[in-house]
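Replying to the earlier thread about multi-chain prediction with a worked example.

Input:
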Amino acid sequence: MDLVVIVSVIISVCAASTPLLLAATGELVVERSGVLNLGVEGMMIIGAVTGFAMAQVTGNPYLGALAAIAAGAFFSLLFAFLTLSLATNQVATGLALTILGLGLSGMIGEGFVGQPGIKMEAVNIPFLTDIPVVGKLLFGQDVIFYSSLILVAAVSWFLFRTRAGLMLRSVGDNPQSAHALGIPVIRTRYLAVLFGGACSGLAGAHLSLVYVPQWVEGMTAGRGWIALALVVFASWRPARVLVGAYLFGAVTIAQFHAQALGIPIPAQFLTSLPYLATIFVLVLIARNRRMTLINTPASLSQPFVPDR
Amino acid sequence: MTLFLEKRANYSRLFSALSPFLALGLTLVFGTIMFTVLGQNPAEALYIYFVLPLTDAYLIEQIVLKATPLILIAIGLSVCFRSGNWNIGAEGQYLIGGMIGSLIPVYFNDFQSPIVLPLMMVMGMLGGAMYAAVPAILKSRFGTNEILTSLMLVYVAQQFVDWLVRTPWRDPQGMGFPGTKRFNESAVLPDLLTNGEAHWGTVFAVVAAIGTWFMLSKTMKGFEVTVLGECPRAGRFAGFDAKKMTIFAFLFSGALAGLAGIAEVSGSVEKLDDNLSLGYGFTAIIVAFLGRLNPLGILAAGLILALSYIGGEEAQIVLQISNRATNVFQGLLLFFVLATDTLIHYRIRLEFGSSVKGAS
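Result:
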């Protein structure tokens, strides 16, 4: 394989990884605050359909992406209200969010099925994008891709280098103590959930505006769940989420290439690969109990009702 | 205005009984708003959705038919959820049950005997249970998150069954359509009524509901399920084994999902095709919660969800309302069930004006 082919494969891996990275980074912040939101898949598909619809109506994919962020955050508010204000079971409520998101997106998107999408074009910086070989890789991708990388760095800095990040982690590890110290537990968790929703929304927009540029019902195809698995795999560390997301992106692309090359394995088996890989990775990581225990937010998925 | 929760000294029996009805009422209110926004007459739309199907004998039978897999799966899930095991992969267990149960009619299509049907049902249950055993063993052996593994296996099962009905199992005389050859008569679950649609699967669902209700409320095993789910620490002190419970709960719900799958294949479709995965495994989660994780409540909840499916089909025919509205209804219903369940353990208080926060 020559260099140009390798670079184009890497670029396609980036495209496959970006939605996973965005959604998983958002969920990481949510879980660090002690909340388990299993609605990632639902928020993502709401983002995908809203982004697509907005781009169709306005003709502008960037407005589509912004609308997807807003829609994801707004949709996550539903989860936040139930789990944080009404102290409902987080697992069940997250599932409800996914079920509702899949249903709602199907209804919103019905009129858009089969319509040609508006693709968010890759950026083009004079001279830099034209650098041979690496130019397109470093300076010629879409804006959401760059945002995802900035986001991971920002989240990592926020969580481990700022006071607010420390407060968020303390809320996740011991909400009772945080509450006693005067940290607003519920408000912190609300903000974390909203942030997660916004990230999932943008991840969905990447699917419907960059990766596929189309609206297909159920197009997230379990990516929200893989993102959830990535957070566990990364043992709640942003840098490891980056590694995990790209690993999964690579598996997805490898699977596509194997199909294209006509390798005599049924397409359905290859399509199953990322899901099987997720299970495999979860088993591997679960065996390393010590690392998981150190990093798991101690109050994860436990409802907290402040006493007055 | 601030909202806060006040823990009740004892849980409220009143709201425990009332919460599913409150949730249904709130869903109807939201339905009214939704249909108004969609430009429909809400009274007419809601009538077609929730009343019209009950006025027609054929449609009532359709509801019973639709409710059968939902109830079977949800009963299994109720045991899982009560014991604190989150089996989200019932859809996959349902598919694999349908597939393993089809082995005999697919490979021995000419084999006719009264033993065929019981064998198929047992194999379906075994298939579902085996598939559910994977996340259960991974959880109890390695501590792997069962929510994620059971869900991932749904996608794998969908792909695998899709491959089967398109490649090795495809009926050569099927005009290229995916699906096996139609099963012979001794592999088809008999109709419940003469020449009806509803089949013996409904009887399995009712028997399973009563049996599981008995197990949960009258036996030691049921007590173990509840204790380990509500307070795992107390369960450990009582000598209950949480790992064994994980395996038991998953095998139990997998077997029922598998039975639902093979009953659907054999009783309703009469062959295995690419249309088996319709999301019943996920809708059953709503059924389980609406039935308050009680097998008898699930019987009623299954019929209500089935009514929404059939009503949705009617609304699509009569009013050209997208049948996607059904999924939205179902999702909202689950939200409202979970929200109103809060009232069982808490009082909700609203405070207006500047609130005085105790701790800060």
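Residues 71-303 of chain B form one domain.

Feel free to reuse this layout for your own posts.
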